[in-house]
Design brief:
Layout: H1 8-28, H2 31-45, H3 56-80, H4 101-107, H5 109-115, H6 120-131, H7 136-143, H8 147-162, H9 172-187, H10 191-197, E1 198-207, E2 219-220, H11 222-236, E3 240-247, E4 250-257, E5 260-270, E6 273-280
Parallel strand pairs: 1-6
Antiparallel strand pairs: 1-2, 3-4, 4-5, 5-6
């Protein structure tokens, strides 16, 4: 694309690139696959007669959605053979991303996992309608359904998500306070501190992808989670250090042992307690932690 600087198609694509990446990432949960979708979107966009396009942003979103749906159907088959639980690929985001409440909620690890429970079409419709406020007519064109069908799918998906999403949106300051309490307890191996910060029905999900040690099923309940956490730390061995960061628009921790990055821990926080722990250890999913990813809803 660099050879075509000044070309209207290139300029439009570049102007909307962060938006298109965010759309693809929210539909796919994988940054690597979202990047591939953007490449496919560009190839198709570069062949379009711009004089025939009334709304270039909408047209680009339509192409991106179609390519994302194609890829998601392929990914679903791959994920069925995945070793242990599958977690979304974590993205390092700018610290001020936490201030954009709508964006932070839509890309949070907890919400991304809820989106995993939708069918591919339901997920695309929900993301376009509820997150990016795309009109029903445009969504219909993107998913090859009638506007009436899209309305029904959107309603069904919204009900499904509302029943599973976190009950409240946590303010950045409250989220930071809970994260710091969790961090202190983990670093000090403070069992009582963990009991205080974890909800009784906390769920811990770890994703090693078959490359690293992880529980093959989610662990439920505060005592089992603490036992699993302490046991895992002992098995991994070495000196644990944790570093606060912002992952997917929310406060999170980088876990390192003897100075080597081991994984990312994101939290689901409700009522000032941790209700979900998401530990991504799969090294193939940690490649985007060296630089910030720009996400946007606009």
């Amino acid at each position: 694309m660099s050879d075509q600087a000044g070309d209207p198609a290139t300029e439009t694509f570049v102007a909307h690139r962060n938006l298109l990446f965010t759309v693809a990432y929210e539909i796919l949960g994988s940054a690597a696959d979202a990047e591939d979708v953007l490449q496919e979107t560009w190839l198709r966009w570069s062949k379009v007669d711009l004089d025939q396009v009334r709304d270039q942003r909408a047209y680009l979103i339509r192409i991106t959605t179609r390519q994302s749906l194609n890829r998601l159907r392929t990914l679903q088959r791959r994920r069925e053979a995945y070793v242990g639980p599958w977690l979304p690929e974590p993205l390092l985001t700018a610290p001020d991303a936490t201030e954009d409440v709508e964006l932070a909620e839509s890309v949070s690890m907890a919400m991304m996992l809820v989106l995993e429970t939708l069918s591919p079409t339901e997920r695309a419709v929900f993301v376009l309608r509820e997150v990016f406020e795309v009109g029903y007519e445009e969504i219909a064109a993107a998913v090859d359904k009638s506007p009436a069908a899209v309305r029904q799918i959107a309603h069904r998906a919204r009900q499904h998500v509302d029943a599973r999403r976190p009950r409240e949106v946590v303010s950045p300051s409250d989220g930071q306070a809970v994260l710091e309490a969790f961090q202190r307890a983990v670093e000090a191996s403070d069992l009582q501190g963990l009991m205080d910060v974890l909800a009784p029905d906390v769920v811990a999900v770890s994703d090693g992808g078959g490359f690293k040690l992880s529980a093959l099923q989610p662990i439920v309940g505060v005592e089992k989670v603490i036992r699993m956490f302490v046991g895992s730390m002992q098995k991994i061995g070495g000196t644990l250090t944790t570093e606060p960061t912002v992952i997917n628009g929310s406060p999170a921790l980088l876990f390192s042992f003897d100075g080597e990055l081991d994984g990312v821990v994101a939290l689901r926080i409700e009522d000032h307690r941790v209700t979900g722990i998401y530990y991504v250890r799969n090294p193939e999913k940690l490649s985007r932690l060296g630089s910030e990813t720009s996400l946007t809803l606009h």
